[in-house]
Amino acid sequence: MSNTSSELIHFRSTLLQDIADEIETDRSGGIREEKFTTTILNYLDEAGETEGAVPCREIRENSIGNRIHKINGYAFSEGYETVDLFITVFKGITDIGRLYAEDIKTATNLATRFLQNLLSGKMEGVEETAPVFDFVRTFREIYRDIVRVNIYLLSDMQIPLEPPEQSEINGIRVHYHIRDIEYIYRIYTSGTGKQAIEIDFIKKFSQTLPCLSGPERNEDYESYLCVIPARMLADIYADHGARLLEQNVRTFLQFRGNINKGIRDTILKEPHMFMAYNNGISATAESVKLTDDKKSILSIKDFQIVNGGQTTASIFQTRRKYKTADLNPVSVQVKLTVIKDPKKKPGIVSLISRYANTQNKVSEADLSSNHPFHIELEYLSRKIWTSASPGKNQTRWYYERARGQYNDELSQIDKAAQQKKWLDRNPKNQKFAKEDLARFYISWEMQPWWVVRGRQRSFVEFMKIADDLDVTTAFYEDLIAKAIIFRTAERLYGAGAKAIGDLRYMVVPYSVAWLRFVTNNRINLLKIWKNQKLTTAFEKELFRILRIVDDFMRETAPGGLIGEWAKKEECWKQLKNRTFDTNFDTIKQACYSEDEFKARHDEVLIDELKLQEIEHDLRKLGVDGWIKIDQLGKVLERFSIRESNFIWKIINKLEKKGQFTNKELKRAELIMSIIRADHSQILRELESNP
Fold first, then answer.
1. Beta bridge partners of 74
2. Which of 536, 681, 500, 646 minimizes the C-alpha distance to 131?
3. Is the pLDDT reported for residue 690 higher than 70?
């Protein structure tokens, strides 16, 4: 544990102030511990440590007021192999203190007793109105599928100790993790604080892993070929589950840990033929320790599978579900790449991941904050100001393309008066990140089930359509209006004792989607953008919709499993087909008139033949031609990063054989006209040699 740095102190004080500001401005209720938990769960979700985590404060006390158990949140993995439980120790004091052995023991014991009470049936009588009710019912239905439970201790203090050792309860492995303020700070600054998976073969298996090292030496990586016994791989998976998969691969593949029938049948019928039939796995690591003769691996640090996760899970599940399965004759080939330079690791790992999983529709690069969509949106967010109103300054909605941009920009201002001025123009409650915009947009696009599945999941779905979006001023203004609707719905639903219920993370996206559906996308988003709020009448009707959708969720969930029901598209299909008692006169007042809608959405018509001519010229240049145009523009300093990003958007669409919108064709024509005006000969050569 390093000494407390000034950066860490500043990060924590800003975090605590943001929590206090949110409670004050949100007016939705809740306590600081709950707000802290929600914030940290979002960080862990974005870093890939958990997925779809739900804040849920559950405390049980005995007759004299002593606590029996406590949790602050939970998450189920895809396929229910893993359950994450979170317990928060929040102090909220000015100085960063430390938690010690007794604090850790108390907290982890409370969370462990909650798990024990679940497994022993002592939670069966929990009231339906309790926040933990949905979790308890779901757990009861799926506990036979659970392989491991992760118990995370979250804290705004430093914890200079290791977590308790792994244990086992009713055949379920229980792993303990500490996520203190220093760990959270690492996630915040680097985008990932993920604890590296370390495998000590001597300690775990009492043997080494034979290997053959690659003959070539270079500065970027080392390669090793190994043959690992399947029983070892199954034991490693039993400990770590889907965390073994490189994060983006896990997200893209919607990893479920299902058994591949071919792998199952080979293990059960012809185990000695497994290596002949199976392609093996590809993995990366930060470092390896070798025996003196360099022929065997003693340990691996930060072991991540980039191709072969399904193979690994299937081996484990076959052993688990079929008592006759014998893994002793089964071996798996492994290609292990050790990345030497930590700074190059993210880029190299993502490329290995992409090339090893070429069937994926979305690549890691597509999810990068450097994707043209995000650069365009950031540009507009710094350029476009809200409308002026009496007694109120113009402000901006600050799009945080990369985590920490907002605070970094604020920290560059030295004088307190200038900082206050900057904050007045860029209010904290008008800051939003990539995952936030995905929730706003996907909800409005009537796909709320993705939003319920978690921030990272909804972001992946959003990026599948990002290439097709025209990032214009109108698009930006409409997006902010959708954000205002979404955040107003969150505030109206409430949190804690003041809330409608305990389903806010489900009810809000479904309510927003239903609002768009029943109005046929006619809500006057421009008016909301100009006013920067909803009318009082609209808010009252939105509150009524939230209550209606909350009741719908509770009444229609099969088996009462509301959380799992809300993750399914079928839930949305049923909601669409329901007729509810709503005040359509009020909703109609919030919609565009026919003339307003036409004025907002109609594009200036261009002669159809001209559009066809532009598209013909665009496609004639081909991928190589547009790459050369981009290079030429950079050399001649004629293109900004925005033009360059748009050119690569053209290239991506050409590669995917996608369709171009009218706006894209007009913009492409503008770029071609720039080259044509100054370098017509070069353009003619490119067109004649596509």
1. 54, 85
2. 500
3. no
Task: Report yes or no: 575 and 549 within 8 Å, Cβ to Cβ.
Answer: yes
In whole angstroms, give the CA distance from residue 346 to residue 350: 6
Inter-residue contact 84 to 74 (CB < 8 Å)? yes
CA 430-435-439 angle, to 5 degrees, is 85
Residue 361: per-residue pLDDT: 42
Q: Long-range pairs for 199-205 at CB < 8 Å and ≥24 separation?
A: 199/236, 199/299, 199/300, 199/303, 200/298, 200/299, 201/232, 201/297, 201/298, 201/299, 201/300, 202/298, 202/299, 204/235, 204/236, 205/232, 205/235
Q: What is the DSSP string of 558-604?
A: GGG-HHHHTTSHHHHHHHHT------HHHHHHTBPPHHHHHHHHPPP
pLDDT digits (tens, 9 = 90+) for 201-248: 999 999 999 999 988 778 889 999 999 999 999 999 988 887 787 654
Q: Which residues, 6 or more positions from 233, have their beta carbon under 8 angstroms from its beta carbon?
A: 312, 315, 316, 332
Please count the other Cβ atoms lying within 10 Å of the Cβ belonging to residue 332: 22
What's the CA gap between 571 and 510, in Å, rounded? 9
Radius of gyration of the chain (CA): 27
Pairwise CA distance, residues 457 & 439, whole Å: 10
Q: Which is more confidently placed, 368 or 245?
A: 245
Instruction: State the residue for tokens 């979790």.
Output: 135
SS3 at position 332: strand
Q: What is the 3-state secondary structure (H, E, C) of 69-138?
A: EEEEEEEECHHHCEEEEEEEECCCCCCCCECCHHHHHHHHHHHHHHHHHHHCCCCCCCCCCCCCHHHHHH
Q: Rounded CA gap, 632 and 642, in Å?
A: 15
Helix or strand holding residue 178 (H, E): strand 172-179
d(CA 28, CA 101): 36
Residues 6+ apart with CB under 8 A from 63: none
Tokens describing residue 671: 């770029």
The CA distance from 269 to 330, in Å, is 11
Residue 323 CA to residue 328 CA, distance in Å, equals: 13
On whether the CB atoms of residues 603 and 631 are closer than 8 A, the answer is no
Beta strand spans in 261-316 (E):
281-285, 287-290, 296-301, 304-307
Residue 538 CB partners (closer than 8 Å, separation 6+): 586, 587, 589, 590
The helix/strand/coil state of 309 is: helix
Tokens of 483: 């954000």
Four-CA torsion 475, 478, 482, 485, nearest 10 degrees: 170
Helix or strand or coil: residue 175?
strand
Tell me how long the chain is.
690
Please tell me the distance from the alpha carbon of residue 97 to that of residue 157, in angstroms, as a whole number. Answer: 5
Average pLDDT value over all residues in the chain: 85
H-helix or E-strand spanning residue 674: helix 662-678
CA gap 676, 669 in Å, rounded: 10
What pLDDT sits at residue 38?
92
Strands 209-213 and 296-301: antiparallel
Spacing of C-alpha 145 from chain mean position? 24
Region of 74 (left: φ > 0; alpha: ψ -120 to 50; beta: rest) is beta
Q: Residue 401 has what pLDDT?
A: 86
Longest dimension (CA), the chain: 88
Q: In whole angstroms, give the CA distance from residue 37 to residue 50.
A: 13
Q: How would you write 392-421 as a 3-class SS string?
A: ECCCCCEEECCCCHHHHHHHCCCCHHHHHH
Distance, in Å, from the CA atom of 230 to the CA atom of 316, rounded to the nearest integer, reads: 8
pTM for this one? 0.69
Confidence of residue 125 (pLDDT cuts 50, 70, 90): confident
Residues 612 and 608: their CA atoms lie apart, in Å, by 6
